[in-house]
Amino acid sequence: MSDLITTTFFSILAAGFFVGVVVGLTGMGGGALMTPALIFLGVGDAATVVTADLTAAAIYKTGGAIVHSREGSPNFSLAKWLVLGSVPLALLGPWLVHQLAGEEPESIDTLLKECIGFALLLAASTYALRLWINLRRVRSGVGDADPNPRIRPIATLLVGALGGLLVGITSVGSGSVIMIALLMLYPGLAAVKLVGTDLVQAVPLVLAAAISNIAINGLDWSILIPLVIGSVPGTLLGSRIAPRVPQSIIRRGIVIVLTMSGVALLDKAGWAPLGKEETHPGLIAGIGIAMLVLLPLVWGLIRKTQGLPMFGSPTVAELEGEAPRTDHRTRREAPRT
After folding, report:
1. Structural domain contains residue 141
2. Would 334 be classed as within a structural domain?
3. What residues have CB less than 8 Å from 228, skipping those under 6 apart?
4. How far is it, in rounded angstroms, from Cα 182 to Cα 225?
5. What SS3 class is residue 44?
6. Domain count of the chain?
7. Are 29 and 176 in contact (CB under 8 A)?
8. Looking at the domain assignment, is residue 331 inside a domain?
9. CB atoms < 10 A from the CB of 47, how many?
10. pTM as predicted
């Protein structure tokens, strides 16, 4: 046991706690944050990190799904079709990586980093797409009018299959990609049912992906143990303080972090357009700064296409359904930031 208590142990624990807090605050997928964080910490190769992250996610997502099930929020019929599509592909994903990359560890590591990099960029894009869909819904006056929509089996199966393949290979996608696909397929689904359904279908999906990755890559307990110890209390704390924190600002920050992480992983893997001989930290930092400056302007132009002023209501927080924060000392609504 003493061999496990090292500096690396506490680094993983801290990363797990931090990402757990963010997941509890925003509900955004932990795999999209945890996997690149562990890779950049250098605690193991990409396959080892993905396996440990999926196993930890299977533990804490189960708790969230049980809570939502007790509240009656999931649409179990919809979740069933998602699971039928996702589980087989989640089991298949790790095997496909080894077939494409061969048995050479370096080739597998490079391919996985490229796959995770592109998956992170996709996850960042889905958040922007979700905001645009919500904006169009607000402008068209479409509300949560259809809490129990007619299920579209084939389309839902395909969404599950795409999410299962992404999660099985990269551990990214169970929250971000599937969520936006559900929002597009079932625009009238109530927000609480959307989150509950996504959590319920994510449990068998992540379990299948974890089992398949463990069978092929093995499981590194020195990563898993501190990851679970850190992420579970972090998620609980984040959930507890979420009503008092401006989630929309954090989510926008996450989009920038995901984009920078995706590009950094592609760079680290030696993806040809970025060059194979050296990394480019200046380019990655420049992308982050550019996004920080340009994203509000781009969002303003998108608002104008919907007949709205560049800035003002509905704000990003309102589009995300974020409740107004209350100053408990004065019992008045605090201004949004």
Report:
1. yes
2. no
3. 16, 56, 59, 60
4. 33
5. coil
6. 1
7. yes
8. no
9. 22
10. 0.83
- Length of the chain as a residue count: 337
d(CA 303, CA 305): 5
- Expressed as residue numbers, the domain containing 218 is 7-324
Residues 6+ apart with CB under 8 A from 126: 176, 177, 179, 180
Residue 5's region, left for phi above 0, alpha for psi from -120 to 50, else beta, is beta
Alpha helices (H) in 218-280, listed in sequence order: 221-241, 247-268
Return the pLDDT at 147.
63
Reported as a single tens digit per residue, the pLDDT across 280-331 is 888 889 999 999 888 889 888 888 888 888 887 777 777 766 555 444 444 4
Instruction: Name the helix (H) or strand (E) containing 288.
Output: helix 281-305
Chain centroid, CA 19 distance in Å: 11
User: DSSP letters of 304-318?
Assistant: HHTT--SSSSSPHHH
**Cβ burial 219-228 (10 Å sphere, 16+ → b, else e):** ebebbbbbbb
**Domain presence at residue 53:** yes
Q: What is the pLDDT of residues 160-207, one digit of tens each?
A: 999 999 999 998 876 677 888 888 888 777 766 777 787 788 889 999
Distance CA 75, CA 194 (A): 8
Tokens of 226: 């501190």
From CA 133, how far away is CA 184, in angstroms rounded?
A: 8
Q: How many Å apart are CA 162 and CA 89, to the nearest integer?
A: 8
By the 8 A CB rule, do 238 and 22 touch?
yes
Half-sphere exposure of 65 (CA within 13 A, CB side): 21
